[in-house]
Structure formats: structure tokens, C-alpha cells
What we know:
Chain A is an alpha/beta fold. In chain A, 62% of the residues lie in helices and 8% in strands. Chain A has three domains: 160 residues, P-loop containing nucleotide triphosphate hydrolases (Rossmann fold), CATH 3.40.50.300; 85 residues, Orthogonal Bundle (Helix Hairpins); 388 residues, no CATH class. Chain A has a six-stranded mixed β-sheet with strand order 2-3-1-4-5-7, sandwiched between helices. Chain A has a two-stranded antiparallel sheet with strand order 6-8. In chain A, strands 10-11 form a two-stranded antiparallel ribbon. In chain A, strand 2 and strand 3 form a beta hairpin. The longest helix of chain A has 44 residues. The interface between A and B is large, with 40 and 33 residues.
Amino acid sequence: MRTIKVALVGTPNVGKSTIYNALTKNNVHTGNWAGKTVDFTKGECVFQDIKYEFYDLPGTYSLLAKSKEEVIATDFIFNGDFDVAVVVVDATSLDKGINLVVQTQEIFKKVVVCVNLIDEAKKKGIIIDFDLLKRNLNLPLVKTSAKQKEGLEDLLLTIKQAQALEYLDINYGILEDKIKLIEEEIKDTSKNKKWMALRILENNKHYIDMFNNLNLLDLGSKTKQAKEELENVDISLEIVIKIRKEVKRKLTNVVKYKNYDYDKKALKVDKILTSKLWGIPIMLIFLFGIFYLTIEGANLPSNLLFNFFQGLEDNLSNILEFIKLPNVLIDLIVNGIYKTLYWVVSVMMPPMLIFFPLFTFLEDLGVLPRIAFNMDKAFSKCDACGKQALTMCMGVGCNAVGVTGARIIDSKRERLIAILTNVFVPCNGKFPTLIAIITMFFMPFTNKYSGLFGALVLTLFIALGILVTFIISFILAKTILKGKASSFTLELPPYRWPNIWETIKYSVKNRAIFVLGRAVKVAFFAGFIIWFIANVKIGNTAIITYLIKFFNPFGSILGVDGVVILGLLLGFPANEIVIPAMLMGYLETSTLTDFASVGVLKDILLVNGWSVKMAICFIILMMFHYPCSTTLLTIKKETHSNYYTFLAFIIPLLVGMGLAFLINILF
Amino acid sequence: MTETLNNICLDQEVIVKQIKGDGMLKRRLMDLGFIPEASLKCILISPFKDPKAYRINNNTIALRNIDAKNIEVVYANN
């Protein structure tokens, strides 16, 4: 089968990943903010007996190779280890995309233009003369609306038929003579000498090194002369201006606006969302609203699931007895593994099925960059980057994702701050536990306001997490990660009404089920281990009792007990299993052998001496301790440093223990 | 009369005269369309007055005031 390798190039937030996902059936999440794809991914599809391999490059504004994403994208295109470059262009903001088309044409010969988001342009009253645009560009051009899956087959056919054209030759004015001089000192190559000469002229070290490594250069007196003659010219500015002129020329008369105020409504929304009076309260209300819906909505299904699984318990025992399994094994399977499993499923699944679609909806709508915009001042006061607000939001999904997402922060120092503090926002492994404990201990009213109150308490704890993030960021920026805040540019993308069905499908499949699957996997083994230490006896006492006794004095310093400490230790692979582990610990030492619903869990805790104060200490320790093993491994991978991985481990642990200790001795 | 971008009034159209400074920030600003002759206006001010968001080339870009200081502009109706 013929294989065509395709590089997907595009500005950030143009729907590149949506096209990639639609074609390859892969699931890269496409949030509505600049820089969501930070690494590039590969996927493939087969259409009419041809295999298409897609490389989804990180979104870039240009290919002049300065920032991390630009270098990744430009290197990939320059190395040319693919057949066709598809430049995805935003129909609502053509010049941004055509700028990239032009620059791609300078590096690569087979270019296809894909104008995406045409439905949105139509909605906004933007009329594009596609025939004229095609003539001006002299390139194959496809119109798509990836969200609606329109034009994708057309895109594949166009890719198949793409022909190699000449490199685009832009007139660089006063630079032209010098370019010619340098070209004479570049060895024969299939690459565009003019583009290479420009990089040499503007002294781009990265590319000069690369050309040297490829043994393409033979620089000497002519290059030196060219550079000397341009000593007083801002070459980079000259290049950018000439490219812009070319773009302007290609777009002459192409775009018409039906009405000039097409984004008046969005602007109105933005003015409110970022206003002095309402900006911050509205963000908190969003947060509160999500929590409220999650807590209220999850209650009933949680109980139903719990009762359902519990009802099956006897049947399972009967079946196992019927096939004559030894009693020990039945006990292990039913009371060890099965109980832990259904606890995790019934407590975690309903909140996740509500929380994640809501959160993904806000993300896709484009609310998160506005949050970063509102919060940036606070981050800049901490000498950190406002985009940290975005990595914090990602951390709510999963801290490992937040850590990887920190790549959108350009400065290494600020990126490290974001990585080291990411664990202070509770990830979804912790949320259900927090929600469960709050439901038990902080909802004193049995009337309809109790859900509101619970959501309020949860919001306050999250606010504490955010506050701690700022304090630790500030301390880091003043001590081990000293430095001034670097520059900050953030694109506020247009609001995009998400495809609701896709949003639900995505968040259920890739977030809820993913997390649940991980939890179930871990719970399976954890259930086994917990059962083992609870049932294997040394002398007349179970191992777990020794362990609990051993941790008790330590726990009591922190306002909790040995069972909680044991639970947190066993929860290292995944925070989801902290509560089931604790439950086993308590059930071992208490006379309660059966519980009818999640609500009765509270009785188990009360019997074992839990108070509101202990619940607070537990929540503090739950929120602030070392990151789970997956997150730590990700941090190691991202920082390439044992030192920073250790810091990421120890800082939150110290914060949590310190806070719990303080609460314990003060109250 | 030239002014630095961080000081312009809300919703006033201005034209870029020059970008000072160099390196990463200047390049990033140019990529985003902040080049001489480009027209833009400040459309949003965040709750703590910094950063501000500017409308340029149909995009909305937020810049911190300390960075916007590097961009010299003149009012469009001058």
C-alpha cells in the first residue's frame, strides 16, 4: 500500500488537533487555548487504499525558530522526512494562517492549504473569496469544518494529488544582494538556499549549527562581508516586515465582512468576565457551580450503584462456594478485591461523570485563558507566569497532565515553578475522596441547602490550594528559583461553542473512564494487598494491626491516626485508593462488618474516633502530600533532574504535615 | 505624539511606530503582528489593571504592562 506522510502545520488553536483526531480517530484533547499540543504526535488512517501518516506539529505563529514549539515544528519541516505539508488556517483570522503558509513554502515544496473553521467564519459574517485566495496563493486549497467533519475526504484527496512546486521567493529588498552573497557559500543541496542564507544572516545559532552538522556550509569572506554591510540593519525586523507584506498582497480583496462588529457580543462577554468588579467573583462562581452540580448530582447515583454492587456480594459468594473454592480465597475475592473495587467505582464514577464533562465544556468554550488573564497579576507578583493558571486547570484533570502542560511556559524557571506547585491543586483522584469526606462531615443540614454548603466548603479548600500555590511559588521565586518574571504574551481565543455531544464523549472516554480504569487496576492489587495484611497474622494479630499501631503516634501528631497514614502510604500509586485502604484498616479493628450505603461509611469513621477536626486534618493531608507515582515519573521526565523530582516530592509533603500539625496543636 | 502601549486609553485606535528591546519578546511580538504601521487598540483591562488585552489583526493578545512599554505607538487620528 502506498504511504503518504503528512505534516500538519498551523497556528495555535486553529483546530489542527481536531482535524488530526477526526482523521486518525486518535484522541488528543483539543482545548481552546494556544499551545495545547506541546509535543507532536503521530497517527494514521487509510482512505481509498492509501495509508496516510499524520504528524501533528505543535502550533506556532511563525517558523522563524525562536521558541521551543517553533523550533520543533521548523526542524521537522526543514528535515523534510515527510511528503506533504498541510497548513491549517483559521478562516476567521486568515492573515495569521497565511503568514505560516508563506513561511512553510519557503522551506518545503509540497504544500496544501486547509482553511478550517469555515462554519464559524460564516456565522461571524466573514465572506472569503476562496477562488481569489487560491489564485493568489497558487496552491491546492481545501475548505474544512473539522468539528462538523466536513471536507475531510476532500483534504485527503488533495493531499494525494499534491505536486512539488518551487520554493516561494519573497523579495527581501535590501537583504537580497547579501542573500546572494551567502548563497554562494552554501554547498549544493535540495534545501532552499535562500531560507538558509536568511537564517545565517540573522545569526540564528540553532540553524547555523544544524547546517554545519549537515555539512552544508562553507562560510567565508562573502558571508562576513554580507553581515558587515548589514551591521546597522535590524535584519529580523526586515524579514518579518517583508513576509507580512507578502501576506498582505496575497490577501488583497480576499476577505469581506458582512458587519464589522461581528465580535461585539463576545467582547461584551469578555468585558464582564474580566471586569474589575466581576472578574474574580465570576471565576469563583464557575468553580462553585461545578462543585455544586457534582456533589448534588452524584449523591443519588452513588448510593444506587453502591446498593447494586453490594446486593451482588452474596450472589458472588454463592457462586464461588458453588464452584468449591476454599473459604480463604472466597474471602479474599469478595471482601478484599470485590469490596475495594465497587467502593472505588460507586464513589468515584458518578462525580467524575458530572465533573469532567462540565470542566471540558468550559475548557472548550475558551474560558480558561480568561482565567489566566485575570490571575496573571498575582502570578507576576510571585515572579511566575500567568500561564501557570492554565497548568493548574490541567492539574485538576490530572497532575501528570498539568506537569506536561507546563511546556506552554517559555521560561525554564517559571516552568519549574509551575511543575513544582502543580500538585497543590487537587487532581481528580483526590476529588471524590474530598467530596466524600466533606459530604460526611461538613453538611450538617439535612435540608436542600446542604449541597450548597458542601460545595462552599469544597470551594474554600480549593481556594486554600490556590493560595498555597501562590505562597510556594513566591517562596520558590525568592529562593531556589530566583529570577524576575519574563515576558508574557497570551492569546485570548474567540469563544467557541463546543459540540456538546463530542465534549461529553471525549470527557467520559478519555478522562472519566481513563481515570476510573487506572483506579480499578490499582484498586485490584491494592485490594489484594490490603486483604493480605489484614488477614495474615503474626502470632494472633494481623499485620495491618501492627502497621496501624506503628503509625498511630505519628498520625496523632498530625491530628489523624495510623490508619490514615497507612492509607496515604498505600495510595502512592494512585490517590483514588486512599479511602478504600483506610476502610479496610478500620473494618479490621472495628466490629462493623457490613454497611448499607455510602452514608454508613460515616458511622465507621465515627466509631473509630473521627471528629470534624480530624476530617479537616485528613483533607489537608489528602490535598497536600507527595504527588502520585505517575506524576513523579512525569516530573522526572520533564525536568531531567533528580533534584527537582525530589523537591516536587518533599515540598508538598512538608506543607501538608506542617499545616496538619498546626491545626492539631492550635485547635 | 508618541506614547508607549501600556499607557493608551481603552478603545482608542493606535498605530505602532517601533518596538524597542530585542530578543525573544520582540520576536514574539512581531509574530503576533506588532510591527510598524500595524493598527491596534486596547480592548480589555484585567481586574488588577495588568495585563491588558489588545485587538490586533483580528486577534486578542494579552500583554503585561512592563512588556507593552517596549511598544511605541501614536494615536490613529493624529
